User: What shape does this take?
Amino acid sequence: MSTREEIIHLGDQLIRDKGFNAFSFYDISKKLKIKNASVHYHFPTKSDLGLSILDDHTKKLHELIEGTATKSPMVKLNAFLSIYTKIKSEGRVCLVGSLATDLNTVDPKMAKALKVFANEILEWVTSILQEGRTKKVFAFQESARTKALMIISNMLAALQLSRLTDEKDFYVIQQTVIKDLKS
Amino acid sequence: MSTREEIIHLGDQLIRDKGFNAFSFYDISKKLKIKNASVHYHFPTKSDLGLSILDDHTKKLHELIEGTATKSPMVKLNAFLSIYTKIKSEGRVCLVGSLATDLNTVDPKMAKALKVFANEILEWVTSILQEGRTKKVFAFQESARTKALMIISNMLAALQLSRLTDEKDFYVIQQTVIKDLKS
DNA sequence: GTCTATATTCCGATAGAC
DNA sequence: GTCTATCGGAATATAGAC
Assistant: This one.
């Protein structure tokens, strides 16, 4: 992995671990054993880094969408849910949740990229649910978009809430989402 | 309202507007037209202020629980949901969501108080749902605690997600929560 | 691409006068 | 209870050498 890629990777972890406003370029330089100024060579400003992290997430989302395009709705749903399972195993929260709470403090370009990213997730999950209902794999009463909002809300908040109530509550919520879709 | 109370009030708004790590004592002193040092007189450290804000929320939660104790489950549920409606009208997020994403950066006392607060909300909503099901006002298949986790997740994340997709999505999610409980 | 060195700004916090 | 003044530290960011 190039230094640039390592910085993006570390920055992403730090945002989802501590929040965008609580990590510094020093945190990254320390871990990579380079100097503060070297991080600034790759990303002149913190917003530049934030934008690149969002671009990276968007790119990986596209890869996941394309990589599962020919699979069944259940496999696609599991691919979506697995994103959160992995984040939970790291003890972190998701990028959308972390940056949404900081939205009023980030620069407009980052806010814009975040909105695009969140809407692409919403559209993907909506399409998965729509396809699943058509194929009689999923059952739900609301519009597919509304159901997608409910499920994404559950997963996003499951990461945050289970930090406070009980770590197991993440899985309680995730399993309930799955069970609810099948009945 | 005393200066101390005004500081708590402003600090609460700032946490839910920008996040705990993005506001400063200067933000508060500027608004109250007093000096930085005066804020420190009331709250020696930022953590002291954070703790007092959490105590204030906990106290108000207790008042709401006691004030609705003799009401119907539907009225209690509406009291719970109205908390989020009000937050949405201010364009902010809830205290639990804001601080959960910052959890790894706050001092242990604040983390502890936040966990107590979140669990009290969970217990309250659980008891509302339990009572509502017993009285045949609500219908759901999961345990009352699990259903409470789902609903709280939906509302917490509705505030965050609707900042990014569409402000109206907050109400879409809220209405779906209500409708789903009645079927 | 990485370094040393530094400029600048901001923030949390405290001492001591009024 | 609020003020002026200030300390110490941390963070973003840049200049210029290697």
Observations:
- The mean pLDDT of chain A is 98.
